[in-house]
């Protein structure tokens, strides 16, 4: 029966003798082009056995019916049963490509209402009824024994999770602090690692520890530079206190820079020799140069440059600027032991020099190297020269009389002055209530009368205001002021309003003052006219009174 049904072989006349050649029998089951793939396709219309068609829906099921033909008709062997899985093996066998199943695509066989579309990093999980998309949660993880790998209780403060094994999972572990092997060093109360916990050597940096000291046997150390050329190469200022004999410090200077070499107390200036300054070979001055290579001055008692400038030509690397006793002729004796004496040098071209102490002498207070691009001769006020960059930007020039001249704008309360003197805040004058301007006719070319007056003054609107906090011009906002709005004034007196480069408006009240003067004069003229009119009316009234009196007398004394 199986052979007959499978291959269409007619075995009715064989009487149990299977002598009918295979392939020559007659197929008894219906001949239909519908394939198994078509049966499970929800996208196409299916033909029914007894005629008609059927369009499957997304949740349609398939039934399996087993039957045979006994020569008279089809007999059902078993009841119909639901097919609960799609025979994807059949799809794969008939697939022409990875995405095409027979004459159909994979999308034709997916029940999208039952299988949700996942996002990147998500998985499908069946909860026993439906599929749901989700990300793996830490609580979903299990160890090799099928249990949760996480500790049953929370970790304490300062502990962390460590992996124990595949069968156990994670456990809470405390930090292993201490000074032993494989322990983590702990900072002390000041936030530092104790000396005992420091490594004994630093092979990469070539540093070696010895007790409380650390040193390096070779190489150079740079501070402010990544390419040190000396054992200690610094960019910037340096100070050394209680300098011992033999102190040596190489330095470089740019053309025209002033260098403060030392700062000593007068009580020790004669007891100890001063600092020596010499050239490094290869940077000597030109013997034919008209200017000296080095100039030097002394600052004493807070006054800079009271002594004459001494120019020296250093023509070889063996020449020194100062020797013991050289300062005795330029430094005056002062009574105060706290008076400070400073030695300043100026180089007239770029060069290298060496600051050092004789091997037999020392300086009790210290030595320093500072640079500045400007010198302040004969000026006793507290005007610091600062660093090279600060001095260059300031561009102050001092004179022997104590005055200061400046080529740019000066700002008080503002870092971006827009005028020669720009004050943000209040300003005071001890000699009066206003600034003084030159007003001599001999200095002026008269262009005509200023005609604005009462009409313009009446259009002005005064307000009380306070500058906005954190305004772009950094104007103070901690108090109220009285004044005008520049945009309103501009419509009435445009000459009183100035537009800055940044677009903000500024007010010059001078035109308002002069318009107010004209307004007062206009009012005075009007008052004078009114007074004259009043006098005329008084005279007219007096005449009328006289006439009334005469009429009254006539009536009282008729003739």
Put the structure in a nutshell:
By secondary structure, the protein is α+β, with helices and mostly antiparallel strands. Among the domains are: 2-109, no CATH class; 235-383, Sandwich (Jelly Rolls), CATH 2.60.120; 421-428 and 449-559, no CATH class. The strands form 14 sheets. Strands 18, 20, 22, 23, 24, 25 and 27 form a seven-stranded antiparallel β-sheet that branches.
Description:
This protein is of the alpha+beta class and 559 residues long. Among the domains are: 2-109, no CATH class; 235-383, Jelly Rolls, CATH 2.60.120; 421-428 and 449-559, no CATH class. It is 15% helix and 25% strand. β9 and β10 form a beta hairpin. It starts with a helix and ends with a helix.
Topology:
Blueprint: H1 2-7, H2 36-39, E1 46-47, E2 53-54, E3 62-64, E4 67-69, E5 74-76, E6 81-83, H3 88-94, E7 100-101, E8 104-105, E9 123-126, E10 131-134, E11 159-165, E12 169-174, E13 201-202, E14 207-210, E15 213-216, E16 221-223, E17 232-234, E18 238-243, E19 248-253, E20 258-265, E21 276-279, E22 294-300, E23 303-304, E24 310-312, E25 340-347, E26 351-356, E27 363-372, H4 388-394, E28 396-398, E29 404-406, E30 410-412, E31 421-423, H5 454-457, E32 463-465, E33 481-483, H6 486-492, E34 497-499, E35 505-507, H7 510-556
Protein name: Peptidase S74 domain-containing protein
Domain Peptidase S74: 439-534
InterPro entries: S74_ICA (IPR030392)
């Amino acid at each position: 029966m199986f052979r007959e049904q499978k291959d269409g072989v007619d075995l009715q006349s064989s009487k149990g003798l299977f002598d009918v050649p295979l392939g020559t029998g007659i197929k008894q089951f219906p001949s239909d082009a519908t394939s198994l793939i078509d049966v499970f396709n929800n996208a196409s219309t299916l033909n029914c056995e007894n005629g008609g068609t059927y369009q499957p829906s997304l949740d349609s099921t398939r039934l399996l019916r087993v039957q045979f033909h006994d020569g008279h008709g089809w007999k059902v062997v078993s009841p119909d049963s639901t097919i609960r899985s799609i025979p994807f093996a059949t799809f794969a066998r008939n697939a022409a490509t990875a995405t095409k199943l027979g004459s159909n695509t994979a999308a034709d066989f997916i029940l999208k209402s039952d299988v949700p579309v996942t996002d990147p990093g998500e998985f499908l999980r069946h909860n026993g009824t439906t599929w749901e998309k989700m990300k793996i949660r830490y609580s979903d993880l299990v160890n090799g024994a099928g249990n949760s790998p996480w500790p049953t209780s929370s970790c304490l403060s300062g502990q962390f999770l460590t992996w124990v094994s595949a069968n156990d999972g994670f456990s809470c572990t405390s930090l292993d602090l201490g000074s032993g092997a494989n322990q983590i060093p702990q900072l002390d109360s000041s936030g530092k690692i104790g000396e005992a916990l420091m490594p004994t050597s630093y092979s990469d940096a070539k540093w070696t520890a010895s007790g409380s000291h650390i040193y390096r046997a070779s190489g150079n150390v740079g501070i402010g530079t990544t390419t040190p050329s000396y054992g200690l190469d610094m960019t910037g200022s340096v100070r050394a206190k209680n300098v011992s004999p033999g102190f040596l410090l190489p330095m470089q200077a740019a053309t025209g820079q002033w260098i403060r070499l030392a700062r000593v107390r007068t009580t020790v200036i004669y007891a100890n020799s001063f600092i020596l300054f010499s050239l490094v070979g290869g940077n000597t001055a030109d013997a034919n140069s008209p200017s000296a290579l080095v100039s030097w001055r002394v600052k004493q008692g807070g006054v800079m440059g009271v002594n004459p400038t001494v120019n020296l030509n250093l023509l070889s690397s063996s020449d020194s600027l100062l020797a013991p006793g050289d300062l005795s002729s330029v430094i005056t004796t002062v009574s105060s032991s706290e008076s400070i004496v400073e030695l300043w040098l100026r180089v007239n071209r770029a060069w290298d020099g060496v600051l050092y102490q004789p091997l037999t002498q020392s300086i009790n207070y210290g030595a320093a190297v500072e640079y500045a691009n400007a010198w302040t001769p004969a000026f006793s006020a507290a005007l610091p020269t600062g660093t090279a960059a600060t001095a260059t930007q300031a561009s102050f020039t001092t004179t022997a009389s104590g005055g200061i001249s400046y080529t740019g704008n000066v700002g008080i309360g503002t870092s971006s002055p827009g005028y020669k003197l720009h004050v943000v805040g209040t300003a005071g004058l001890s000699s009066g209530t206003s600034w003084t301007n030159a007003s001599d006719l001999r200095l002026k070319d008269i262009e005509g009368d200023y005609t604005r007056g009462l009409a313009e003054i009446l259009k002005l609107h005064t307000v009380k205001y306070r500058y906005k906090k954190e305004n772009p011009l950094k104007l103070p906002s901690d108090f109220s002021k009285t004044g005008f709005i520049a945009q309103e004034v501009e419509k009435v007196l445009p000459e009183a309003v100035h537009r800055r480069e940044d677009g903000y408006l500024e007010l010059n009240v001078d035109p308002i003052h002069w318009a107010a003067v004209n307004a007062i004069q206009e009012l005075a003229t009007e008052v004078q006219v009114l007074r004259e009119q009043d006098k005329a009316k008084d005279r007219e009234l007096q005449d009328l009174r006289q006439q009334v009196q005469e009429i009254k007398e006539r009536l009282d004394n008729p003739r």
